[in-house]
Amino acid sequence: MVGYIVLGVFVVLFVLVAVIYNKLIRLQVRGEAAWRDIDALLRKRADLIPNLVETVKGYAGHERGVFEKVAEARSASLKASTPREQGEADNMLQSTLKSLFAVVENYPELKANTNFTSLQNSLENLEGEIARSRRYYNAVVRDLNTGLQVFPQNLIAGLFSIKPREFYTLPSEEMREPPKVAF
Question: In the chain, at which end, N or C, are there fewer CB atoms within 10 A of the end residue's CB?
């Protein structure tokens, strides 16, 4: 009789550990998938930026310094691998895009160009998608990190070396909103 009780306790403990472990692994996988979604959107944005710059160059070729800064910021964004690095790179890229759009303000004929308008609308839509993806990623990271700190999940996480993920944050308050690209 005692043997059955001990066996029952072990089965219940095993099931509990398995359920908690699977929950934490699902959160880890969702976090990785959410990060990959952000990465794909950032790459899509990075691919759009050279087209935008080339269109502006056709009208304002003498603004070479702005174009070089945008290219450097784009490169830094592509090289970032962690949420913190990506946040810093986004900060720099957003700042240089604001400079680029300030140049555009001086060229009314550029604002009427359909190619530029199309690229501008694409960038605006991408920025919205990136913001939504950031929020989703941070929600998953919040759930995972919370799960790693509460009892008994913290014991299971420690047992299987499940680590918390880093939040995606933007370094400055002004960078929390996508750039205004409407004219």
Answer: N
